[in-house]
Design goal:
With 697 residues, the chain is of the alpha+beta class. It has 20 helices and 19 strands. The longest helix has 36 residues. 42% of the residues are buried.
Length: 697
């Protein structure tokens, strides 16, 4: 099962604001872990709101109870390394009772299970600390299963002891192979294990309640979640203070903090060194501050370490996704900064002179986000910034520069304003519907192009990837449905639902802010052809090879995601069908021997292998040989690509050669251009056919 992003922390990093950090610093006695009157009140309101307004109507019955039970266990012990099968059997009396408990606002089962969990954490940490006093033999050929999310619960304490023996041995070996001394290893791991125990002891009643309620909301679908009063309060403070961050969205994954995505224009994205799937294992302040180990930390606490004022330095110790679990660390230095609207603004370039492009000139408009300066608009600023306004100007400029066709680049565009998605589509069509929105009651509202002007009517392609989501999918889906352009790239993310934030205090007299908030999924997007963008995303007309490896990515990867659905098509008039098959054949012919696409395919296959891996060797010589083999294979593939770009191979004795200086930027630029250049070639094929048809006529 996949972990779910903690909303507030994710948004805090996404927009560069302060994180929601639990202020509790004292140990909470076990006998004080009891549900409160406010929590029981909030439970009844949440159930009522979900029943009335949530898009998915799921009855709260025994079947739902079993789902809630499993998700609560997963939230407490995601890697199945604290509870034993005997504990699970003891808890099983609650499996079909949680529905009734919620309906009656009886929260005792959740608190009973948490108390046992806390005891088990204390036992495991005490055992781990004892193991640090022992000597381990790294010449023994044995393996450690680091990912146990789908494993059976340990049968008894002896099996649990063996899992933890291997866990501690693996932690020691990983630090040892990263060049740490025995003293440094012991110090780091003592802090790590004591930190796990301390943070568990600091969890208070509100934390337990939030975890349990989210086990219920996640049984509906992945985007409905509850924020406790403290989390809501800290989130509001962070929004008002507008503190800066690094521009990354994070999530918890098996006691690690994993990068879910980076924000265009943010320090993480601009560095080119922080990528989706990387694990943050340490955080240091300033240029020489001690790097603190953050393995096992709560997501909120990691975010608190990463955030800070504009211009300050933060150092991240990262395990790159491509090195696999237990791989070598890499230190990355970032300067915190505010993510400004200008950093996410649309930009234009022109492609010409490529092989197979001929005399054709292709304009490219990079759209990193669907932004709109709502404040400037409300203040009466006639020149407020927006995606549509900026793209309109760029389209006019490119036409004045006499380009033959235009590519809209939506790669890594996670969405934004629905208004902008609708208005941007309107720049390319005369008029008509753009997207349909169906709410929980089944009512459908159609968003239409508000402007009859077609700013650009020429040859068009839209480039998307697996991280193109939400508003990007609305735009790409509409362009595809109108047959207005060729969609190229990877199947998109598949985020086709609409959320709203509900303040629970509004439902009771003098409720104030004591009950927290509910992020509620209340509607779903549908394309004008009637199909949803949810789950499947937008499937390109021409799929790039790496796209075949994105089948279980995005919404398709999330537990309990809403399925694809269909409603009646809107009334719209598409253009004539484009002969895609011909361009697909030409595309496949070109990329068969293309070094860039070969590199991307190899890289994606390699990353998939790393993601699917669940076991590492504890034999030091074997582990080291695996590291060296993986690094050699990756460097060989990268060097083949560098040579194709006209760059020299990376130096054999320089581990950072691929990440340093001008050559690093050339690498990044080269990788970025692989897909966009091929999109230009595909569009050029289409332009050639159009010109030939005109000559014939």
């Amino acid at each position: 099962m996949k972990r779910t992003i903690i909303l507030a922390a994710a948004l805090a990093l996404l927009f560069g604001y302060a994180a929601t950090v639990l202020a509790t610093v004292t140990i909470v006695p076990l006998d004080q872990l009891e549900p409160t009157r406010e929590q029981r009140q909030a439970t009844l309101i949440i159930i009522r709101v979900i029943d009335k307004y949530h898009y998915k109507h799921l009855p709260l019955n025994d079947e739902a109870s079993a789902l809630i039970f499993d998700r609560y266990l997963e939230s407490l012990d995601p890697n199945r390394s604290y509870f034993t099968a005997r504990d699970i059997e003891r808890f099983s009396i609650y499996r079909d009772q949680l529905d009734n408990a919620l309906l009656q606002a009886r929260l005792t089962p959740a608190f009973d299970m948490f108390r046992v969990y806390r005891q088990r954490v204390e036992e495991r940490i005490a055992y781990a600390m004892d193991l640090l006093e022992q000597k381990f033999d790294f010449s023994i050929d044995e393996d450690y299963q680091f990912n146990r999310t789908d494993a059976a619960w340990p049968s008894d304490r002896n099996e649990l002891d063996d899992i933890w023996r291997k866990r501690v041995k693996n932690d020691i070996l990983t630090l040892r192979l990263n060049g740490k001394s025995a003293e440094e290893i012991n110090k780091t791991l003592r802090r790590r294990y004591q930190g796990v125990k301390r943070r568990t002891e600091q969890l208070a009643s509100n934390d337990i309640f939030q975890t349990f309620i989210n086990a219920y909301t996640l049984s509906l679908e992945p985007h409905t979640s509850y924020m406790s009063p403290r989390v809501s309060e800290n989130f509001d403070i962070s929004m008002r203070l507008s503190l800066e961050g690094i521009g990354a969205v994070l999530r918890n994954e098996n006691e690690y903090t994993e990068v879910l995505s980076t924000v265009p224009g943010g320090p993480a994205a601009l560095s080119g060194k922080v990528k989706t799937g990387d694990r943050i294992v340490g955080v240091g302040q300033g240029v020489d501050g001690e790097i603190i180990d953050v393995v096992g930390w709560r997501l909120q606490d990691v975010v608190d370490q990463i955030r800070g004022p504009k211009g300050s330095t933060v150092r991240l110790r990262i395990q790159k996704e491509e090195t696999g679990a237990g791989g070598p660390d890499e230190e990355i230095v970032l300067i915190r900064n505010e993510i400004k609207l200008e950093d996410q603004a649309a930009k234009k370039t022109i492609i010409e002179g490529l092989d197979d492009l001929g005399p054709v000139r292709i304009g490219v408009i990079d759209v990193p986000a669907f932004y709109r300066d709502f404040k400037g608009q409300s203040d009466g600023d006639k020149n407020f910034r927006s995606t549509t306004r900026d793209v309109r100007q760029l389209l006019k400029e490119l036409q004045q520069e006499r380009v033959d066709g235009i590519v809209i680049d939506l790669r890594e565009n996670g969405g934004g304003s629905l208004i902008e998605a609708t208005e941007l589509t309107g720049l390319f069509i005369p008029s008509g519907p753009v997207v349909q929105v169906r709410d929980a009651s089944g009512d459908v509202e159609i968003e239409k192009d508000p402007d009859p002007e077609t700013v650009y009517a020429g040859p068009l392609a839209v480039l998307v990837d697996r991280n193109s989501a939400s508003a990007s999918e609305i735009f790409a889906g509409a362009i595809q449905d109108y047959h207005r352009g060729i969609i190229i790239g990877e199947p998109t993310f598949g985020k086709g639902t609409v959320q709203t934030l509900v303040d629970l205090g509004r439902f009771v007299r003098n409720g104030g802010d004591k009950l927290g908030r509910l992020r509620l999924t209340m509607a779903q997007f549908f394309r004008i052809n009637g199909g949803s963008t949810q789950f499947r995303g937008v499937v390109p007309d021409i799929i790039y090879p790496p796209g075949s490896m994105a089948e279980k990515y995005g919404e398709r990867e999330l537990d309990n995601a809403l399925p694809w659905a269909q409603i009646e098509a809107a009334d719209y008039r598409p253009r004539g069908q484009t002969p895609i098959e011909k361009y697909r054949v030409n595309h496949e012919r070109r990329i068969n021997n293309d070094a860039g696409f070969k590199f991307l395919s190899e890289e994606n296959a390699y990353l998939k292998k790393m993601r699917d891996s669940k076991v590492v060797s504890l034999l030091e010589s074997k582990r080291k040989a695996e590291w060296e083999k993986r690094e050699a294979e990756r460097k060989a593939g990268k060097n083949r690509f560098r040579i194709a770009l006209g760059l020299p191979p990376a130096a054999e004795d320089d581990q950072d050669a691929e990440n340093s200086g001008d050559d690093s930027q050339k690498d990044l630029d080269g990788i970025d251009r692989i897909m966009i250049n091929e999109a230009a070639r595909i569009l050029s094929d289409y332009i050639g056919d159009q010109r030939q048809a005109v000559m014939v006529n």
